[in-house]
Amino acid sequence: MEDLFGFDKERDFPEIEWSYSRRGALEQCPLKYYFQYYGGLTKLAKKENRQEQIVLFKKFSNRFTRTGEILHLVVRTYLKDKGNHWSLDRLQKWAGQMLKEDIDFSTQKQSGEKLNDKQYPPVVLVELWYGHEHGNQLIDETKARLMDAINLFVSSDIYSELRSFDQQIPRVIEKKVRYQVSDIHCRAQVDLAYREKNDSTVVICDWKTGDNNDPESGLQLQSYALWAIDEFKCSPKELKLLRAHLSENKLKQYEVTTKTLDRASARIRQDMERMRLVHTYGIEAASEAFTPCLQPQVCRLCSFQELCSLV
Fold first, then answer.
1. Architecture field, domain 171-268
2. What Rg, from alpha-carbon coordinates, does the chain have?
3. The whole model's pTM is what?
4. Hey, where are the domains in the chain?
5. pLDDT digits (tens, 9 = 90+) for 124-158
6. Tell me: the pLDDT tens digits for 160-192?
7. What is the spatial distance between Cα 70 and Cα 51, in angstroms, rounded to a whole number?
């Protein structure tokens, strides 16, 4: 069945799934979007002759993304083990060790070598790989923020309910989920979701290392709400959407109504229209059709700097 653009969804877009991270990449920098979702995938951009490099750079990370990944891993481990054997000191040492291995790995520029069989292998940090000025200092500052976030997650009263280990409350902990908005396939990774004991309220929480100034940040939680309504068989008024800014010791609640969910659904449909319009260029490896953002602050944190002639 063809849509208003003349495309057959089953034939032309079998690989496209909406996610908050995917729409964010396209919004931030179309060229990065191409590298991330087309150029490094053999089954899509078959004519791309830089695939080996793109695949390598896709594994890189910047200090903010990486410390966010480490924070999520620490929180997930703590919650799944119900706090057993995980003191604050042990959590912080583990997080610090992972970041130290990243720094050593990046400094030695070993990315072309085969990684060892560690469960959590190190990653290359762009600040060190590309030799950014004061790169080590910036990473140290971000590490301090990470340690503060772990401390507050474990000790702050603000997050006490979210740390609860009540056996009678089944919890979704950092789970990859799929759902649909109309005919659009969506995917997400929900940090924490559960129904409160003896209450109809369903809590959904997203962890962050600090404040998020993105004006679209609420869209992420609203999209989780669209999943939760079907998963928990609840109404919008039964949902409590929370974002925990851990290093700031803040817990922000977002309003959720039929109106906010309709707005989120509309944004998802608009995003998908844009993704479908550039899809053909992506599978044809026409990277010149994807405009670089030309924003120095964004470019300095990008893994694909070496492939972008304008950086």
1. 2-Layer Sandwich (3.30)
2. 21
3. 0.89
4. 16-161+291-307, 171-268
5. 999 999 988 898 999 999 999 999 999 999 999 99
6. 999 987 777 889 999 999 999 999 999 999 999
7. 28
